[in-house]
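F.,

This is the one I mentioned.
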């Protein structure tokens, strides 16, 4: 087997020579940790140490076997994309993201299947019915429970509108037929007290007819491409415990955080005079209360009045100042009528709920009783307006966990891989922003 020549415009690049060294490792050379460190840029995360890279290299070597390089491309500055043909007849893609400096050390690599006949492109408004059909025929399986989220077809991209220009939405097509959807959302978060740019995988659906044929690899490259374009430090997905297919698909390179969705029955609410509707003049007050409840939680970037105003300007018809219920020491921000939830356990009957999302909440350290009264008042208002449940995220080490979990009709645990840090020990509080979920 012989490799295609490296294109002249790439051949002399330092990063391309580093990729060639990586290829030699895949073919049997065994580098030391020091040699790996020479080729890879440090990320600041223990999961990207030379030792961890060597482990991934060994797994990749086993998957590939003998191979030849069939094509070299640079579809984006700093992204080297190789097509590999293995002796077993499979075609794969090896992509490497390079540091944007003169050394061009490798920042990340990804290895994906590349079956023919698929493309990923931007969505069109006239194909919403096809996208909704894929949602309906690919329920999320959590153990014995099958869940389908039914979005309003008149505003199918509402979630992405709330993300502003941070959303990259892709539609996968095979021979002119829509067979998958994917969304990558970029935002800044705090991890271990350090501000990082993160890419969140918020939607990923592949039609049953093409599942298992490598189609997901095209969607993953769509994500890797946009992570590179937006210069993200890491990517993540929040996966339901019991969703074995997605848990198996992940690479365990971080430590696990366990956020939990509290599903609250709106019929448990009670009319309350606590609080009032929020206004733009409440910006600093609301930001202070949100920070009081969540500062220090992984993924939570503390608010300022200005950053909160920017958040609420993305799609004010969906979420704005008036979406908040504010008191002196507590606040709750809710998006009502978000979607309908079809839920079936085993062979049992299907339940149907109309769900609202709590997108922001906060309270002062000794104001849980005030927060509870505010929350019960919000539940009462939601019930009167037709919502049957409210989704609110927390985690066991988080402030207010015992209160929220005690009010919930059901707690649904999720898993998110957090970039590992030196000295990690014990559970870590995890903040989930449901706009980016």
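My design for it:
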């Amino acid at each position: 087997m012989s490799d295609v020549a490296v294109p002249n415009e790439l051949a002399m690049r330092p990063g391309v020579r580093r990729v060639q060294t990586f290829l030699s490792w895949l073919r049997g050379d065994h580098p030391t940790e020091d040699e790996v460190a020479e080729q890879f840029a440090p990320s600041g995360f223990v999961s990207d140490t030379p030792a961890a890279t060597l482990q991934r290299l060994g797994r990749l070597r086993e998957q590939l076997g003998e191979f030849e390089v069939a094509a070299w491309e640079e579809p984006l500055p700093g992204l080297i994309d190789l097509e590999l043909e293995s002796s077993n007849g499979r075609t794969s893609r090896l992509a490497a993201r390079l540091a944007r400096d003169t050394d061009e050390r490798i920042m990340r690599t990804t290895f994906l299947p590349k079956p023919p006949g698929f493309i990923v492109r931007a969505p069109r408004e006239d194909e919403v019915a096809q996208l909704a059909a894929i949602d309906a025929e690919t329920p999320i399986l959590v153990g014995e429970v099958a869940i389908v989220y039914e979005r309003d077809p008149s505003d199918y991209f509402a979630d992405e509108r709330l993300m502003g220009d941070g959303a990259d939405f892709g539609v996968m097509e095979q021979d002119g037929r829509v067979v998958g959807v994917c969304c990558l959302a970029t935002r800044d978060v705090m991890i271990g007290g350090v501000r990082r740019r993160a890419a969140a995988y918020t939607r990923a659906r592949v039609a049953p007819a093409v599942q298992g044929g490598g189609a997901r690899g095209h969607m993953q490259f769509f994500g890797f491409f946009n992570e590179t374009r937006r210069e993200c430090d890491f990517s993540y997905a929040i996966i339901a415990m019991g969703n074995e297919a997605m848990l198996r698909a992940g690479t365990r390179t971080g430590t696990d955080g366990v956020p939990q969705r509290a599903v609250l029955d709106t019929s448990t609410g009670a009319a309350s005079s606590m609080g009032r509707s929020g206004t733009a003049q409440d910006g600093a007050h609301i930001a202070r209360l949100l920070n009081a409840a969540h500062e220090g939680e992984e993924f939570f970037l503390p608010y300022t009045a200005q950053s909160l105003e920017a958040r609420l300007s993305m799609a004010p018809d969906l979420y704005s100042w008036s979406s908040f219920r504010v008191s002196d020491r507590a606040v709750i921000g809710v998006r009502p009528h978000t979607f309908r939830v079809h839920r079936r356990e085993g062979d049992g009957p299907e339940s149907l709920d109309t769900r609202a999302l709590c997108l922001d909440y906060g309270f002062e350290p000794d104001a849980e009783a005030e927060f509870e009264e505010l929350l019960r008042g919000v539940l009462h208002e939601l019930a009167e307006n037709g919502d049957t449940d409210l989704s609110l995220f927390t985690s066991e080490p988080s402030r207010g966990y015992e209160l929220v979990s005690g009010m919930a009709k059901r707690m649904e645990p999720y898993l998110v891989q957090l970039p590992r840090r030196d000295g990690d020990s014990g559970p870590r509080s995890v903040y989930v922003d449901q706009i980016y979920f």
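The chain is about 25% helix and 35% strand.

Talk soon.
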